[in-house]
Amino acid sequence: EVQLVESGGGLVQAGGSLRLACAASGFTFDEYADYAIGWFRQVPGKEREGVSWISGFDGTTTYADSVKGRFTISSDNAKNTVYLQMNSLKPEDTAIYYCAADFNFWGGTPSPLQPEYDYWGQGTQVTVSS
Questions:
Q1: pLDDT score for 69
Q2: pLDDT tier at 33 (50, 70, 90 boundaries)?
Q3: Cα(67)–Cα(71) distance, rounded to whole angstroms?
Q4: Which of 6, 51, 84, 125 has minimal CB crowding within 10 Å?
Q5: What is the number of other CB atoms lying within 10 angstroms of the CB of residue 17?
Q6: Cα distance between residue 57 and residue 5, in whole Å
Q7: CA geometry: angle at 21 spanning 19 and 24, to 5°?
Q8: What is the pLDDT of residue 108?
Q9: Gyration radius (Cα) of the chain, Å
Q10: Average pLDDT over every residue of 30-45
Q11: CA nearest neighbour of 56 among 78, 32, 40, 39
């Protein structure tokens, strides 16, 4: 069974950094390339939005405009983990961050659409104080 577990959230001042991790189990990055991993975030009372995505095929990455230039997504096959490095954090980045896996991905640019993602983690809270 595929499981995703997020970690690394916390409280940080504006301008600071955090690195989120999404540890995957139930499949191995090295042995299975037909997947994409996405990071999404949600503020209570608002719709969940996409943040960043990475291809299991070739590491192609994409970012939402709101985080471009500040966030970096990466993967470590040895640890079966995807990371989201968040720099220059702003109070508006405060949210619960979720990672999710799309197993209907056949290469190219990962989909930003949430219905494409089959498995979701439980989320990790990120709070940025002003």
A1: 98
A2: confident
A3: 6
A4: 125
A5: 11
A6: 21
A7: 170
A8: 86
A9: 14
A10: 92
A11: 32
Tokens of 7: 């970690």
Residue 84 burial (CB < 10 Å; 0-12/13-18/19+)? buried
Q: Report CA-CA distances (Å) from 57 to 18, 68, 114, 119, 121.
A: 26, 22, 19, 18, 21
CB 38 within 8 A of CB 56: no
Which two three-digit tokens encode residue 45?
A: 């009372």
DSSP string for 6-39: EE--EEEETT--EEEEEEEESS-TTT--S-EEEE
Measured CA to CA in angstroms, residue 56 lies from 24, 43, 65, 82, 87 at distances of 12, 28, 22, 10, 24
Q: Are 89 and 72 in contact (CB under 8 A)?
A: no
Span 64-79, pLDDT tens digits: 999 999 999 999 999 9
